[in-house]
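stage 2 :: seqdesign
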């Protein structure tokens, strides 16, 4: 029996973000929404300029950590009333007593 028949291959890129053309989905929205608004109001160049500026600001805010870093920042810095993680324990509690 050949040992290659028993090899289980695991996909290397399971956690890669979904892409739209060459951009990640959140980057495409950052540019696409202002661009589409400019297109609908017949101000394509203004929409493209604003979309490009929003895209650059979004890339700077997102940084190297990507969306996972922004989601973690939502947990740590938002008050418990508006956090999307209502089932998680409050982030301001540092020591739990058992």
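stage 2 :: out
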């Amino acid at each position: 029996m050949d040992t290659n028949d028993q090899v289980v291959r695991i996909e290397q890129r399971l956690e890669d973000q979904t892409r739209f053309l060459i951009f990640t989905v959140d980057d495409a929205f950052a540019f696409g929404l202002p661009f589409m608004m400019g297109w609908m109001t017949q101000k394509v160049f203004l929409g493209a300029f604003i979309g490009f500026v929003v895209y650059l600001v979004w890339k700077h805010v997102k940084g190297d950590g990507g969306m996972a870093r922004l989601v973690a920042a939502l947990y740590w810095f938002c008050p418990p009333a508006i956090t999307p993680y209502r089932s998680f324990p409050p982030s301001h509690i540092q020591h739990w007593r058992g």
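stage 3 :: structure notes
- Strands lie at 19-20, 23-24.
- The first helix runs from residue 25 to 40.
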